[in-house]
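pasting for the record
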Amino acid sequence: MKLKALALVATLACGTVYAQTVEIRDAWVRATVKGQTATGAFMKITAKDDARLIGASSPVAGVTEVHEMKMEGDVMKMRAVPGGLDLPAGKTVELKPGGYHMMMMDLKAPLAKDSAVPLTLVFKDAKGVESRMELKLPVALAAPAAMDHHSMPHMPAARP
């Protein structure tokens, strides 16, 4: 079981994960220091069909939400995205520092570089059907370098 989890972490660190009609690439979580109570998770999401990322959860955080950072005048503001994030069919939506991201708040402990964090993403398709994707994301100080995704194994599809 531990070997399987490590394989998943390695795949997320440098590869692609597929579930139902959603593809996740280049996923990672920013490392924290003692006393820090929040951090971000980042990734590239591509949906085969129109969908929404409507939520997330992680046992390492009290609250996990889809957030957006944007400039309003001379002030950078961050807030939850009401109703979730649209994932237009075939378009890659990037969750990245300074833009859309998963905000993990009320952290229960610091997140150390080179560890892994479980994260469950919740999607809703155009018909209103919800599905979940279980991930283990690598913790890093900065975005891991992109790797050749064509040689990476594909993960089995998750069940809705």
